[in-house]
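This section describes the prediction task in plain terms. A model, or a person checking by hand, is given the sequence of a single protein chain and must write out its three-dimensional structure as a string of tokens. No templates, partner chains or ligands are provided. The sample shown here is typical of the held-out split.
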Amino acid sequence: MRRPRVLIAYKSLPRYRVPFFEALRDRLAEDRVDLSLVYGQGTPREAARNDGARLEWAISRHNKVLLVGGREVIWQPCLAEARSADLVIVEQASRLLLNYALLGLQAAGHVNVAFWGHGANLQARTANTPSERLKRRVSRLPHWWFAYTEGSKNRVTALGYPPERVTVVQNAQDTEQLADAVAAVSLRERDRFRAEHDLGEGPVGLFLGSLSRDKRLDFLLDAAARIAADRPDFRLLVAGEGEERARVLAAAEAHHWIRYLGRVNGLQERALVLAASDALLMPGLVGLVALDSFAAGVPLLTTAVDFHSPEIEYMQHDVNGVIAPDPGDPAAYAGFAIELMTSEEKRPRLLEGCLEARRTFTLASMVDRFEDGVQAALAAP
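The expected answer:
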């Protein structure tokens, strides 16, 4: 009996996805299902993050970027692989031309297509463009849906898609190694790092991630200046690369309390930076960094902006992190930050909440859920 074949077509391959694809491939192989992966290259903006990866067993194809009506669309050349698959899983995105071709093949009875994504555009500024209206219509058509979170499932079913054909995967990344690495950082190593970067004995806030506009670095620097005015012993670490790098470098030159670390490469370096910090200060878009917060036991402070990634659902205010209610008030954010970094009453409660969330949102759980969804999709008429 022929083994079922599943193909995932991914626009590009970020480093954090590699452990998931490896684990899912192994899990499906145990159940006699063959998984293939085709991936392309990231956009120039994604390339600035310098987080692309390679997989020896996967197929790398060069995407073709086209201009249609002044908008970039992407063609990922993998129709030959798709035609021989029983199920093709693609990202939910209106600019991926492959999705339309595959849905055409599905309508002709040649292949079943599954979408994997947020369920809707979470960027309020662009949610009502023609391309997004098209995406909402197309999102009702696939054979199966892999939704990032429960909220993603609700958005999909609100479009009229049958809930019994939606798998909630609880999007995650491999944080077990990070948790172990942070726990292994000795007090001596932590003190040496603080001394090397002249962090002193005061509270340390950390920004960790891509330096993109949706992370609101301008707001962070404004709020951090207010923290430093109230607490002269405060230091801000900024770790990352991206389009806002020049802004951060200029601020670091102007203010003695900012330390720009660049991109933090490697597990041990990332663990050391987290171990030396008292809070993650992320006033803009929050996604998988919430899982880093849980794994490291470093509570995260964000704001109630309306464009977070689905993983914001994992955060519970005053349980495993803090969400400042007014995203336009840097003074209030600074007040929350000082309390978060110094309160002997609040910190233990938040650390316990981080530990509980770490046990819940795991890569192993995501692989289990995804594998169940693949089996259900293969069996569904």
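For orientation: DSSP finds 15 helices and 15 strands in the chain.
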